Protein: Xyloglucan endotransglucosylase/hydrolase
Amino acid sequence: MSSGRDSISMSAGLAICVVALALASAAQLASSRPTTFAQDFQVAWADTHVRQIDGGRAVQLLLDQNSGCGFASKRKYLFGQVSMRIKLVPGDSAGTVAAFYNSDTAGVRDELDFEFLGNRSGQPYTVQTNIFAHGKGDREQYYVDDVPVRVFKNNEAKGVGYPNSQPMGVYSTLWEADDWATRGGLEKIDWTKAPFVAHYKDFDIEGCPVPGPARCASNPTNWWEGANYKGLTALEARKYRWVRVNHMIYDYCTDKSRFPVPPPECTAGI
Structure:
């Protein structure tokens, strides 16, 4: 991932609702229509480490010394909402990374991602977010448990790239990265605790699949085109500021060693 990122600390072992708007200007958690895993997703690698449970309504990703694993959506989407509930690896998860991201893997890189960085027992996870637009990282809206934790507005008028032209797939992976994931690589993975297991359920994709109806992305009846989805409400804005004041541990917008002059999107507000 690019070194340009935001990082937030949070408690470990929680059930997390992750909502990322794939390319629209804003998002909120709408009424979900969870499906089974196989309706919208498929195993991307290491099928022996992906277990469908509860009649296919949930999956477990396993990490051991042999392999990590991952899954991907069967289709790509241009605009819409993706949500699922994730229970991260409990206990001692140091050196592990559970990633959830939307990405275009064929063209110039567009990507919206979460990376949940494990930690020693009792210590908080770090949630690292990043955005790539037209191949450039360092930077749309991310929610954890209905709380916005990352906002990236469309500022193309200011010359800021925005990922709104390439359809993206939806991916999640569980893998070992103890050379950097926990305290910069100081805390190594303890393989005696393997297998490490992350749980996923309530899969929901609502959006414009590609290929699909040509008018989907510009259809005024799409719920994400409504005024309520073009920005944060006053309550959401308060929650957003609270998260950043109380839990943020890194913000590229304030990193003057890398950006003596803040990137233009950093002064755009929410």
